Amino acid sequence: MAAAVASRRCVGLCFSGSLGQLAGQGNVSQIVKRSLSRTHNVLSVYKMVVVGGGAGGCATAAHFCREMGKGHVAIIEPSETHAYQSMWTLVGAGLKTLGQSQRPMSSVLPSKCDWIKESAVKFDPENNSLTTSSGKQIQYDYLVVAAGLQLNYDQVKGLTEALQSDPQVCSNYHAQYVTKTFPALEAVQSGNAIFTFPNTPIKCAGAPQKIVYLGEEIFRNKGTRDKIDVIYNTSLNVLFAVEKYAATLRNIVQKRHIKVNYRHNLVEVKPDSREAVFQLLDSEKGETTTFSYSFLHATPPMSAPDVVRSSPLVNADGWVDVNKHTLQHTQFPNVFALGDCTNLPTSKTAAAAASQCGVLKHNLSAVIKGKQPTHSYDGYTSCPLVTGKNKCVLAEFDYDGHPMETFPVDQSKERWSMYQMKAHVMPQLYFHGLLKGIYEGPAMFRKVMHLGMGEKKH
Ligand SMILES: Cc1cc2nc3c(=O)[nH]c(=O)nc-3n(C[C@H](O)[C@H](O)[C@H](O)COP(=O)(O)OP(=O)(O)OC[C@H]3O[C@@H](n4cnc5c(N)ncnc54)[C@H](O)[C@@H]3O)c2cc1C
After folding, report:
1. Residue 86 Cα, ligand 1 centroid: separation in angstroms?
2. Which CATH class is domain 151-301?
3. Where are the beta strands (DSSP E) in 274-377?
4. Is domain 2-149+304-368 classified as CATH 3.50.50.60?
5. Residue of 149, 173, 204 to test ligand 1 pocket, by largest number of atoms within 8 Å of CB
């Protein structure tokens, strides 16, 4: 009992003093992690806690584990499996297998971090603490939030039931449903093949239309194209946010007779009659229109996870509220965030998370040393717009929608080489560079490719 009380007191003292004591000290090995069992919960203290072991969280934890050593960084992640989700576009088109996109979580998380195989269920940033699903209380000096997005399939009436019961309804956004896409594409003989884009921010905003192009190509190769209407119903009013790439995509949809219906938002699926109901977003009377389908690829509405949305960490729109350049939280200076769950006004991609990680690690290291953030994120993001099984438009741009192309060629053109990058080079960069906290995006390559002279403006 005496030991427990002493230990508990030390937890309080270690923690309450540590932020101040550490400023300028930078000697993390002096921080002692202690744990003790209480009647109802377990209290652990870490120098750094990372929430989420996806692209951004894994990369960040890998870097700081190297810097701080064993036992000082905890990563909270409930999933047994890590997925390279970017590959799911190719899985949906039958060009890769789901297995190629997945690794056991234990094999990608850094060995020097403590993996707490649970969800964070409550954030208490005023007290530098959070609670996990088993009721464990974790205290930290520094918190990094990288909890990704929640897929809200249930916000579309009938969609979950349709995904579970109708073989012709699929979704590349979920490990369970992405393997339905290719068989469903192959099975279509005639009728409407419908692809949707929801009325919320989503991860990889290009992915809902990449599968349109791949699907259309599959129909052509199978000889069924003439009997199938390929329809892309999107909530947006443009094909792509950056005009340079949107122009190419408009040409492609015109040339390949893909019908695009803007401002159409999927609100209901009726698997029994194979009908999909769309809200017409520009209708003042809230009108809807119904399409019959013989194939439906649904991209679900998305949000930050509920537990993040209900925490003091978010802005009014429910996104973790960080400074768009430093990635430091606007209210809690010992909290940083990166990736899809943030308010960063750029396209939510793993490529963006890689660049963000590069900035975050410098800035968080500076803050740990009692200094000001030194690096600034420019909004870099990238979207390999696969337009066929050997073609890709590699979109790269910043916060202002200015292209930031890595290669000294016009990347708005469909290219075989960019497909090879997407299918073969990027997975290597992801698993062997990003997840190990080494790859920080292509800024260095871009400089080299443009002979250090800044990129060519197209
Ligand atoms: C079909 C598809 C195609 C894509 N294509 C591309 C592409 O071509 N290029 C590209 O760059 N990006 C692409 N992306 C997007 C990319 O996968 C994401 O942007 C990237 O994974 C974001 O990283 P993240 O760390 O923010 O989130 P994630 O990688 O999603 O990781 C979030 C992690 O947080 C965990 N988590 C959630 N809630 C909690 C909690 N309460 N407690 C603890 N842990 C929690 C989750 O289990 C998950 O492991 C694509 C995505 C999809 C689905």
Report:
1. 9
2. alpha beta
3. 275-280, 288-292, 295-297, 302-303, 335-337
4. yes
5. 204
